[in-house]
Amino acid sequence: MDSVTQLDLSKLNVRQVNQILHHELPDSGTQRVEILNPNGLHSIAAGLDREITVDLLGHAGYFIGGMNKLATVTIHGNVGWSVAENIMSGTVRVKGHASESAGASGHGGLVVIEGDASSRCGISMKGCDIVVGGSVGHFSAFMAQSGTLVVCGDAGPNIGDSLYEATIYVRGKIHSLGADAQEEDMQAEDFEQVDHLLAAAEIDCDSKNFRRVASARSLYHWNADAHQEY
Amino acid sequence: MCGIVGLLLKSNELRESLGQLVTPMLDCMGTRGPDSAGLAVFHQLADPEQIRFGLFSSRADFDWQSFHDRFVRDTQCDGSIRFTKKHAAQISSIDVDAFKQWLSSSHPDVDLISTGRAIEMYKDEGTPREIATRYNFPELAGTHAVGHTRMATESAVSPAHAHPYTAGQDFCLVHNGSLSNPYSIRRRLESHGIEFETDNDTEAGCRFLEWRMREGDTLEQAIETSITELDGFFTFLMATADRMVLVRDAFACKPAVVAETDSYIAVASEFRALAHLPDIKQADVFEPAPEQIYSWTL
Hints:
The structure holds 2 protein chains of 2 kinds.
Chain A (H helix, E strand, L loop, with lengths): L3 E5 L5 H11 L6 E6 L15 E6 L14 E4 L15 E4 L15 E4 L12 E7 L13 E6 L15 E4 L10 E4 L3 H14 L9 E5 L15
Parallel strand pairs in A: 1-2, 2-3, 3-4, 4-5, 5-6, 6-7, 7-8, 8-9
Antiparallel strand pairs in A: 9-11, 10-11
Chain B lengths: L2 E7 L8 H11 L7 E7 L8 E6 L7 H12 L4 E5 L2 E6 L3 H11 L4 E6 L2 E7 L2 H7 L9 E7 L14 E2 L4 E9 L2 H9 L10 H14 L4 H11 L2 E9 L2 E6 L8 E4 L3 E5 L15 E3 L7 E4 L1
Antiparallel strand pairs in B: 1-8, 1-14, 2-7, 2-8, 3-5, 3-6, 4-5, 9-10, 10-11, 11-12, 12-16, 13-14, 13-15
Helix pairs in contact in B: 5-6, 6-7
């Protein structure tokens, strides 16, 4: 059985904890770290760049698991703004709810929000995959360039506004589509993709009721005759 | 930036500890607002005839006892005074307009910063920690409190520009965000005879809401109107004698988190300000949705 290192944020500060995670764990073997008393603090387990498993036991603050590479970070509670911001690879999982901008500008890897994500989830995502067990707030996947956002619940206002080549799948109600986002028919490969991501996220949900939202690509070229109306 | 905090205690046994619970919340939000801070605490006066007048002098050595003696001599009204440095609460059954008239003629340098049967107000320049120590916040008791830590972006740093803002009686507002049409709101209200103390955007929001309520709106109706009429970003936290009310604008880019247990409702800009509260691990913790009015009553 793997040994577990416990780091207590009531005794260490965030910089000390991150220093240990970055530089002071043994170089070889699988490592598991539990972080106690995150208490809403920011930037915990940010910038990890190897295959370690980190569990935060409680609610955490902003920028948790930011820039993650290879590591598996699980938050056993809620998180504040920008969890897994700019994730490169690995997995960041939130067992509770996430506030704004979850997975913002993520390049790769998987972000799982088991509860609800708030506004701007997946804003400017660039290749990561995000699976939300609950609903997402307004302007989610705003200007998303690549990757997939799967929403098992509802989508708030203006989903996919100014979307590039990311794909969005929504199972529940869509409050409204953003500028240049359109609903498209689900093809066999869409169902496959949703099934694949739900399995990877370990979220029990049937892919058959999902709908696909993607870019209409009418914003790709400036149209001087459009009078700013799209 | 700015930070907001609010705590409404449902259980009687916690009410003696209101100051002890809310002071760390305010202190924690000092990183979001280090230049000034304020706290409004609510607790009903025993005598329904009496009003608590919250007063502020720019001088920490102001002679509040002489102020009170002169008040009693001039007005022949009963009353008592409690004071700490720049702040005092003159308690009396005097008519509100009569008190304002007496204050402006006898002490034009003293500001009336709150009026009501329940509200007690503190605000000053400095870090929240300094202000909490200066005015003994941990010792305050009451049913609920709202507080603010300010990082000024649109008007001067001064005690008068610090939040909470009050208007009318037993109503106050703290605000994280910025309004972009406070001057047009202000001109509109001034045409109704409403006077302003500062050039702060939040004061315009506060006076707008109180004006709507005086015109017959419920607080909810006033907030609905403000969502249409006020342009800008806001997370508003309001308190009346028996309620705490929260609303965020449509874009909701100014944060807020709510924690609810059987004993209390706590609101803050960030969860870390709530982490010390009793039974927080069992609390229902959620982010309030945009344009939805959350109201909690004692």
